[in-house]
Write a structure and sequence with these properties.
By secondary structure, the chain is of the alpha+beta class. The protein has a single domain, classed as Roll (PH-domain like). About 45% of the residues lie in helices and about 20% in strands. The protein is built from seven helices and six strands; from the N terminus they run αααββββαββααα. Helix 2 runs antiparallel to helix 3.
Length: about 180
């Protein structure tokens, strides 16, 4: 993998960088009167934020009172956005937002406090395209759907393939258009 040759390993990103807390302090100061409340909420967010990048996808967990865990498989990723405000850029931080086809305007997963945002984005695009390229390569061969590795977890594809094959068998028994009549 070309990211590994450049020294980037996404599995090392398990928590946001320490600079994110400094950014949160600056943001809290800008709220003036609400500073203690804002800083407390952002501190809890920072302390509970966890990430994991494995062979299957991206996982994020956060929260103290209301715990939220999100796991997005690479095959579900539709788009990846990098955002970085003026203060974030000054501090070398960025946010990586991962979009899926869930129909929401908000990103499914956001990875805050990333120093190597471009490398992470490139890694995610590589994983996303690799999964899709494997699926498309398999789908172009005859009867590929039956030959696909069902361990990949694509239950919908397996179910649709079984329905298709069942309809073909039924059509052949009844003597439909595909029966050579």
């Amino acid at each position: 993998m070309n990211q590994a040759s450049h020294g980037f390993d996404p599995s090392t990103i398990t928590r946001p960088d320490e600079r994110l807390m400094k950014y949160y302090v600056i943001v809290s100061l800008l709220t003036l009167v609400a500073f203690p409340i804002t800083l407390t909420a952002l501190w809890i967010q920072y302390r509970t934020m966890r990430f994991r990048f494995d062979d299957e996808g991206v996982w994020r967990a956060q929260g103290f009172l209301w715990r939220r865990e999100v796991n997005v498989a690479y095959r579900r990723i539709q788009d990846i956005h990098l955002t970085s405000g003026l203060i974030q850029r000054w501090m070398g931080l960025a946010t990586v937002s991962i979009q899926t086809a869930a129909g929401s305007a908000n990103p499914e997963v956001t990875i805050d406090g990333v120093l190597e945002a471009e490398a992470l984005r490139d890694f995610l695009y590589t994983k996303m395209r690799g999964v899709r390229d494997q699926a498309h390569a398999g789908a172009t061969t005859p009867h590929a759907a039956g030959a696909l590795d069902t361990g990949a977890g694509d239950e919908a594809l397996v179910l649709l393939t079984e329905i298709r094959d069942g309809l073909r068998r039924l059509e052949a028994r009844v003597g439909g258009p595909g029966a050579g009549a």
